[in-house]
Write a structure and sequence with these properties.
The chain is of the alpha+beta class. It is built from 12 helices and 13 strands. It has 2 domains: 256 residues, 3-Layer(aba) Sandwich (Peroxisomal Thiolase, Chain A, domain 1), CATH 3.40.47.10; 149 residues, Thiolase/Chalcone synthase (Peroxisomal Thiolase, Chain A, domain 1). Helix content is 31%, strand content 16%. The strands form 3 sheets. A 9-stranded mixed beta sheet has the order 4-5-6-1-7-13-12-8-9, with helices on both faces.
Length: 435
């Protein structure tokens, strides 16, 4: 008989998910977002926000007609970089869902209420920061001198400003900072936020990742380092092809994904609706190459093993993995090798690639995929992976979800890896009163 590891029973140290939100190519509703994923809808399309006629890649997971109404005043919205708009809208929506918004739930923060503002923190990271504000002001300075630089240039381009703005809006005085580990950013934010709760430094953490890199500089930069797919100009929906033999690079995406993490004690005191439980996570570094992972996935495998240890879960309890799966030649194979190194028996394992439908959101990627992972637990439905026409041999023996799956999720892992060799893994599970 298999004996499972013992989980923490202390409600102060158990961390649960009580809210979630997205800004995505499918809009700002987390349920609509997952409905679209389940339906296998691609949000990758021709870029419309700037002239891409001379670019070899002319498509992306670009958010179009983004609406900030009800969340950001028009005057402020005109000043903000799109990255901070995504942060503020998704952060506020996640808080509203959790019932921890001082504007929507003021009674929670009044004297005698269940929450204190100095016990609520914000940790929403980004890989690139305020790219448009930065690039626009550099162009102004180059053309007309430093006097044309906006006074908002520095504060609205630095990577910590999203967390700062959200905290200032609501008066949250708990842990507040940003983390920037490229495409692994949001998973770092989730795990660090959970650590603040486990260590007794906060009761609630609003955490995740945001990115707005679908602009002339962002697209041009990734074209320059030859990271992007070029085969989707005729049909962008076919460009992101995780684990397919014809994959040729990732598709740039953008948006935000935010979770509200909370101590079980706090959530139960408030009578909150618990969506899932955050079980644990880990970080490692490949220390191998500035852009490519270790070809054998050594750092990735170690990260998953450490995450299982932190979650006090056995590998048999994990039956779903939301993979990094960027559709790159080296990265896809390295992750598969790591999976097989850790999960020696893959017969009960289901994996999928969210990026096949929304592109690679960089610092927002793990945030969006974290929401997708929690939704999979809530609904017991796994979304498909698009464009699996001719799978590579390395994937043999693993279900890659070419179609949506009805699966009772017992444990879910979300993987994200970034330039610089940053590996991150977070584990979620259905909430149970007792383990």
């Amino acid at each position: 008989m298999r004996v499972l590891a013992l989980h923490s029973t202390d409600p102060k140290k158990r961390v649960v998910v009580t809210g979630m939100a997205v800004c995505s190519v499918f809009g700002n509703d987390a349920d609509v977002f997952y409905d679209k994923l389940l339906a296998g809808t691609s949000g990758i399309s021709a870029v419309e926000g700037f002239d891409v006629a001379d670019y070899p890649t002319r498509f992306a997971g670009e958010i179009k007609n983004f609406d900030v109404e009800g969340y950001i005043p028009p005057k402020e919205a005109r000043r903000l970089d799109q990255c901070w708009k995504y942060t503020l809208v998704s952060g506020n929506k996640a808080m509203e869902m959790a019932g921890v918004s001082p504007k929507k739930n003021p009674e929670q923060f009044e004297e005698g209420g269940n929450l204190k503002k100095n016990r609520v923190g914000v940790l929403i990271g980004t890989g690139m920061g305020g790219m448009t504000v930065f690039s626009d002001n550099v162009e102004k300075a180059a053309a007309k001198g430093f006097k044309k630089i906006s006074p908002f240039f520095i504060p609205y381009s630095i990577t910590n400003m999203g967390s700062g703005l959200l905290a200032m809006e609501h008066g949250f005085m708990g842990p507040n900072y940003s983390v920037s580990t490229a495409c692994a950013t949001a998973n770092y934010a989730f795990h660090l936020a959970a650590s603040h709760i486990r260590n007794g430094e906060a009761d609630v953490m609003v955490c995740g990742g945001a990115e707005a890199a679908v602009n002339a500089t962002g697209l041009g930069g990734f074209v320059a380092c030859r990271a992007l797919s070029t085969q989707g100009n005729e049909d962008p929906t076919k460009a992101s092809r995780p684990w397919d033999k014809n994959r040729d690079g990732f598709v740039l995406g953008e948006g935000a994904g935010v979770l509200v993490l909370e101590s079980l004690e706090s959530a139960q005191k408030r009578g909150a609706n618990i969506l899932a439980e955050y079980m644990g996570g880990a970080f490692t570094c490949d220390a191998h190459n500035i852009t490519d992972p270790h070809p054998e996935g050594l750092g990735v495998a170690t990260c998953m093993e450490l995450a299982l240890k932190d979650a006090k879960m056995s590998k048999e309890e994990i039956n779903y993995i939301n993979c990094h799966a960027t559709s790159t030649l080296v990265g896809d194979v390295a992750e598969l090798k790591a999976l097989k190194r850790v999960f020696t028996d893959t017969s009960n394992l289901h994996i999928n690639g969210t990026k096949s439908m929304i592109g690679h959101g960089l610092g927002a990627a793990a945030g969006l995929e974290g929401v997708a992972t929690v939704q999979a637990i809530r609904r017991n439905k796994l979304h498909p992976t698009l464009n699996q026409d001719d799978l590579i041999e390395d994937v043999a023996g693993i279900d890659t979800c070419p179609e949506a799956r009805d699966v009772v999720v017992t444990g879910a892992m979300s993987n994200s890896f970034g330039f610089g060799g940053h590996n991150s893994c977070c584990i979620f599970a259905p909430f149970k009163e007792t383990h």
